[in-house]
Amino acid sequence: MKALKLTNQETLENIESPIPQPKNGEILIKTAYVGICRTDRKCYHMGQQDLHMPRILGHEITGTIAAMGTGVEGYGIGNQVQIHPGIGCGICPDCKSGNDQICKDMQIFGFHIDGGFAEYCLIPATGVSRGIVQKVPKKLNLETAALCEPLACAINMEERLKFQKTDSLLIIGGGVLGLLTAALAQIKGLTHIAILEKNLYKIKVAQDLGFKCYPHTISREELAKDFPQGFDIAIPCCPDNQGFTTAIDFLNKRGRFGFFSGLTSDTPINGKLLNKIHYKELALFGSYGCGLNHGKKALKILAQNPEKFKFPTNIIKLEEASAVIKNLEIENTIFTTIKF
Questions:
Q1: Is the Cβ–Cβ distance between 120 and 19 less than 8 Å?
Q2: Which of 325, 39, 328, 312 shows the shortest CA–CA distance to 201?
Q3: Which whole-number Å values give the CA distances from 91 to 96, 105, 278, 296, in the listed order?
């Protein structure tokens, strides 16, 4: 099979390898779509705390069951499926409480286990038994289902922040995670949603989708003309310090800050800015990845509201993926996916 492997830092190789043969309890997936996200690019450029190289990247996976090992029940050859990317240990307090995304022994596709940048993907028996192979409803296509993992991440953040219909929400960053968060907020009943974005293409996409989107340089006073109530929640869906700063500055007193995207800059955060968390009595909620429960909810939401997630998609071949991953910032793209 063809695959794209990260063999070392900033070294991607197109390889040919045998198609894996599923053993007892395992499932082999013929990959259909796999998304390329900022984390994949980060793995290539600077590594990631969970990444073990060499590794076939890719954790936003959909496909069709091609083969099954002995003992697998509840699935059939040809089933269309989405793969939840994380396998928790199943026995620690975090897993037992439904927070497997923070399991210290979590195994993640594209980080600990070879992922979806390959024609076939082998699902370990532990993952199969814990339900990470999710059947995709017939009314949902596999291309849209590939948004399940990033939407599940947005759901994790939303649950931490406890969205209320009366909340006013500020999202900094109009890429795929920003738009997914905005769409999720609408589904949850929020009507006061603003997105700040620096890229003109992404601003237009967000506006065409019906969101109120503004240049990231807009002042709090200018934004207050459309949002006089201010913002109860702010979520930076971008990894730069400016988004972090804007979120704290624009939040109302006793607002909720969603720390959704880790910062990639080594530039220190100004102490006076952090003091505003104290003086404004802000609540800060961290969110990392998604648990299996979030993945199940995401697939259901996608199937029930497919019209909310018709984002512009850049569909590429596996042979084109290396160039895309090496480009840390894709200016005029919302969602990029490899189609096999």
A1: yes
A2: 312
A3: 6, 10, 37, 20
CA distance 31 to 17: 15
Note the pTM of the prediction, 2 decimals. Answer: 0.95
Phi and psi at residue 216, to the nearest 5°: -65, -15
Max intra-chain CA distance, the chain: 64
Write the CB contacts of 67 (distance below 8 Å, at least 6 apart in sequence).
Answer: 21, 22, 27, 28, 77
Q: How far apart are CA 26 and CA 5, in angstroms?
A: 22
Q: 330 falls in which pLDDT band (50, 70, 90)?
A: low
pLDDT tens digit sequence for 88-147 = 999 999 999 999 999 999 999 999 999 999 999 999 999 999 999 999 999 999 999 999
| CA 123 – CA 114 distance, rounded (Å) | 9
Mean local confidence (pLDDT), 295-307: 96
